[in-house]
Each structure stands twice: as structure tokens, then as C-alpha cells.
From TrEMBL:
Keywords: Lyase, Metal-binding, Zinc
Identification of the protein by name: carbonic anhydrase
Gene (name only): mtcA1
Keyword field contains Metal-binding: yes
Organism: Filibacter tadaridae
Taxon lineage: Bacteria, Bacillati, Bacillota, Bacilli, Bacillales
Catalytic activity annotation: hydrogencarbonate + H(+) = CO2 + H2O
Cofactor: Zn(2+)
Stated family: Belongs to the beta-class carbonic anhydrase family.
Length: 191
């Protein structure tokens, strides 16, 4: 049995037994927050519990490292939409200790791509087109500094409302302990 067939079989039972009813909510976050965090598997349930978030409380955005890497990329677009269209009043950027993005080996990733059939000559084409694979795949050295940089990218975005607090935190992936790196309330125009 494949993973997909296991998921579909479970899903049929979930729907037939109305397991979805306990998760009924609206598209607007009850706590009026948007959270950007890492896609790390250890955070899937832990972060929600550590923040006392239930289904419907927050807009959750995840990517590798919980990073804002481009001012007009999909992460920033999602944050902007959450604030202006989906009633989020605060932004939380949450990194974590022991993040895989703090130890990415770009040479190894490129080698894995080639081993899986990506033509080596494509990397020359990408470089000629202005894409530096090592820069694009590189993570960060320090999670605290990474969180600060993403907070600054959101807070200083030309389309972000200056009255929206942008908080930066780091969570411990084993205990759920949250450390405040940036208190967004201290940096808003309206206090």
C-alpha cells in the first residue's frame, strides 16, 4: 500500500465519521495573527501547543527556515494578504534552534539533484541567467539573526502597515520554549 492510498483510505473514514466537525471555523484567524515559521516536522503540532493555538486561531505560513527571502515573493505576499484581507493584526516570525537551514550544504544538494537526473549543464544555464544556486539554496548561520532579518524585511516593507506589530521569536524544537528576539509592540507607530 502506498502512502497516498493510506491517506485516501483514512480520509474517507474521517469524512464519513464527520471528524471534520470539531475543526469548523472561518477563514479569518480568531486571534487575528499570522505566523511565519519553518516547515520542520518537529513544529507541526508542538508550535501550536506551545503558543496555545487551536484550529482557526492563526494564519500559518511555512517554508524552509521560516525566512522572508524576497520582498515580493510568495511569503511576503501571504503576509500582506493576511493583514489587509484576512484580518490579521499582528505578525509572528518564528525560527527554531537546530534548523536544517543553518547547516545546508549546497554542494551536497546540487550533487543530489544530479544523482536524481538533473542535467549538470542546467546549472551553467541558471548561472548565466543570474541564478546563483549556492546563494539561492544557502540558509543562515545564526537563527537569531535570521529572525531579525525577516522581521526587518516585513516591518520595513513599503506595503506593510506600520501599526502592525511584527514579532520575532525562536522556539526550542524539543521543549516548545519561546524566546523573544524582537518585541513588535516596541516598534509600531501606534502604541
Amino acid at each position: 500500500m502506498t502512502i497516498l492510498s493510506e491517506i485516501i483510505n483514512f480520509n474517507k473514514s474521517f469524512v464519513n465519521e464527520k471528524g471534520y466537525e470539531q475543526y469548523a471555523t472561518t477563514k479569518f484567524p480568531d486571534k487575528r495573527i499570522v505566523v511565519l515559521t519553518c516547515m520542520d516536522t518537529r513544529l507541526t503540532e508542538l508550535l501550536h501547543k506551545a503558543m496555545d493555538l487551536k484550529n482557526g486561531d492563526a494564519k500559518i505560513i511555512k517554508n524552509a527556515g521560516g525566512l522572508v527571502t524576497h520582498p515580493f515573493g510568495s511569503i511576503m505576499r501571504s503576509i500582506i494578504l493576511a493583514v489587509y484581507e484576512l484580518k490579521a493584526d499582528e505578525v509572528y516570525i518564528i525560527g527554531h534552534h537546530d534548523c536544517g537551514m543553518s547547516s545546508t550544504n549546497t554542494d551536497h544538494i546540487i550533487e543530489s539533484m544530479v544523482n536524481r537526473g538533473i542535467d549538470k549543464s542546467l546549472f551553467s544555464t541558471l548561472k548565466y541567467s543570474g541564478v546563483d544556486m549556492k546563494d539561492w539554496l544557502h540558509g543562515f548561520e545564526d537563527v537569531t539573526e535570521s529572525v531579525r532579518m525577516s522581521v526587518d524585511a516585513v516591518r520595513n516593507h513599503p506595503l506593510m502597515d506600520n501599526a502592525v506589530p511584527v514579532h520575532g521569536l525562536v522556539v526550542h524544537p524539543d521543549t516548545g520554549l519561546l524566546d523573544i528576539i524582537v518585541d513588535g509592540y516596541a516598534n509600531t507607530e501606534e502604541q
